[in-house]
Amino acid sequence: MHLIQFAPLRRWFVYCTLVLLTFLVAGCSDPTINEETTLDQIQARGVLRVGTINNQLSYYIGPDGPTGLDYELASMFAERLGVQLEMRPVFGLSGLFPALDRGEFDFVAAGLTVMPSRLERYAPAPAYYFASQVLVYKNGTGRPKSIEQVIAKGGEIVVAANSSHEATLFELQKQYPELNWRTTDQQDGDELLQQVASGELKYTVADSIDVALMQRIYPDVAVALELSEDQAIAWYVDKTRDDGLYALLIEFFGEIQESGELAKLEERYFGHVDSFDYVDTRAFIRAIETTLPRWQPLFEKYSAGRFDWRLIAALAYQESHWNPDAVSPTGVRGLMMLTLATAKFVGVENRLDPEQSIRGGVDYLAGLMKRIPDSIDEHEKVWFALASYNVGFGHVMDARRLTRAQGGNQDSWADVKQRLPLLRKRQYYSQTRYGYARGDEALKYVENIRRYYQSITGYYKSLEPEVPVEVDLDEITSVVVPVSGAVSAAAPTTEAAAESTEQSE
Hints:
The protein is α+β, with helices and mostly antiparallel strands. Helix content is 47%, strand content 12%. It has three domains: 9-129 and 231-270, D-Maltodextrin-Binding Protein, domain 2 (3-Layer(aba) Sandwich); 133-226, D-Maltodextrin-Binding Protein, domain 2 (3-Layer(aba) Sandwich); 278-450 and 488-500, Lysozyme, CATH 1.10.530. The chain has helices at 9-28, 38-45, 69-81, 96-101, 116-119, 147-153, 164-175, 189-198, 208-214, 244-259, 261-270, 278-290, 292-303, 309-320, 340-345, 354-371, 381-391, 393-405, 413-419, 426-429, 439-462, 495-500; strands at residues 47-52, 60-62, 65-67, 84-89, 107-113, 122-124, 129-131, 133-138, 158-160, 182-184, 204-207, 221-226, 231-238, 479-480. It is globular, with a radius of gyration of 24 Å.
């Protein structure tokens, strides 16, 4: 099962052309369109108002401020319009489109599926990814292998009211009349997945990408059945308003598709979620609860001003599983598994001393960050640095040169990571400056760290108290600014030390 499909250029172009024509035909014939255009109103107020939902993918306030795929895309669009962005989160799907009808939003950006019932009044912008719908159950409770088994086993299916998941169940009910479910407007999709993980609910329906992300925090969430083909996920505008805003959205998505900006965002949010190891994730969550608190103060101390401490914690777990006495057969040791050469380079005298190890590991990673070319996007530099931490800076630069030679983008992690495994093959490494390298291991290394990082972030977010109150949209004034990437402040480095050191086996 494919968790997610990024829109190929031709499929994307055909899709956005069709929806644009749909909007223009419906919109231009609608006598209720306002004389003052939506664009005029946005420019006059100097604020773009975007309706959304608080969840792990679209928009939420993290430790470093607002984040989420829809938030970042909306920030980019607001910047192109030259206005400020105001994200207006609504509790539940039930309140989202009515608020758009009342003109409280300029458009809706909440990871919503394109479905026929919504097209009667709303027009979807170009799809920015595709995902299927899946039936979800708790691992270990007996996986149903068909809809007939779901009906026979009993157990309630609960989905969010007015969701595409409810529409999918209505379609299935035509074929399976005995299929029943319950809708709720008191929990969103993320909360329903959490309730399945805890055993409070038997089943729910969710988008495949949401399940993949949730499994990093709640590994007991499991997929029973795929209920739909891949479906377009898009923003929505009101057809009864002018088409100027919609045309700009078409243009915007075309620009970021062509420039590669959309691919970079997709890589950042989705590029590491295709594989899932249930046993490893369960063990990691237990380690977060029992072991991480012991080392968290040191991670925070030495990451301050340079990296998110949770990223360094994820790196340390990948290296040693937070075991300060870890030693490999090749001689790397300690929490950060430093080689003898690297320890000497960063001034670490005792690699088995946890504080020295963490300080040395952070210094070394920061030094690598300084060496990553500025042509690479600030958000992606850290993945190149982590790969260098594992396999050596020179080999990562070889992978970049190989990527360029094959017509890929040497500044894109999504492109370069595909070439890292080629460094094992003679036909490729014989053409490189630094020769053979275990690039496939470096790729797995980085992707594991990304998954661990997401799990730590999600775990701590799940501990935050939630106040489920209805929100007065008139009281929301969340004018936000995109958050820049991690800042590096590196220790002195030399070409020879960074290029010859292979950090871990």
